[in-house]
Amino acid sequence: MTAVYGSGAAMAWGMSDFLGGYFTRQANAFLFTAVFNLGGLILVGTTAAASHGVLPGEHSALWVLAGGMAGSAGVAVFFRALSTGRMGLIAPVAAVLGAAIPAVFSMFTEGLPGKVALIGFLLAAAGLWLITRTEGGHSPEGIGLAVAAGIGFAGFYICVRQAGEGSALWFATLTRTGGLIVTGLIVMVQGTFRDITASGIRGAVIGGGIDSMGTLLFVLASQSGRLDNAVVISSLYPAVTVVLARIILREHFSRWRFVGLLAALAAVPMIAAG
Fold first, then answer.
1. Domain region containing 246
2. Structural domains counted in the chain
3. I need a surface site. Which of 97, 141, 156, 271 has the fewest CB within 10 A?
4. pTM
């Protein structure tokens, strides 16, 4: 079941990331993500209330809220990166860091990783260098934002792990609540209440619902087996984003950046498996 839930999470996150990157081209990233969180909150919140599941305790709730805040800030920055750069290059960078940082965290809390993870780190470093290196005097746009997004994603993974066991539906609901709080506050400070189109609102609501289903599936995956196994499969979501960007947006990569893309994608499960 871990594999089934994790695969579903990867599919959902990959699709929602593509939608977010596409529609954020016409909206403020934090305003879009606030609507994105609201759409997801309505879906999982009503489902959680209807399920009559047990509410998480204070310890778990605080960790999940913190994870939602970190993850949502990462998502907003990620959408901004996807809208300014190439999705096929941005997504793997964020995913590698999102998987690598929890792996480093595990080194300090659970000991050194295995050989596979160490090889994955080397492969990720090579892949990131090929993706981000200057070609023709220019570096790809959005890489710095992708790094920041990856840090936010890592915070989400670590916080959900620290939350322990509990209702997956309420965990997903609290995640969206935390995300809506942080993005809503940023929108209020920025005063960007109208910087979004009608199509952007529709895209945000749909994408938020899909993303929330991915979050729910990830929580179920992490609770049904080992966390590293859940992260292994769930972290393959960039493959979905890359395929959609290639098919729909007709993105093309140079030969060496394509090699770097493949190396980065291959490194994600290797790092998470460690």
1. 2-272
2. 1
3. 141
4. 0.79
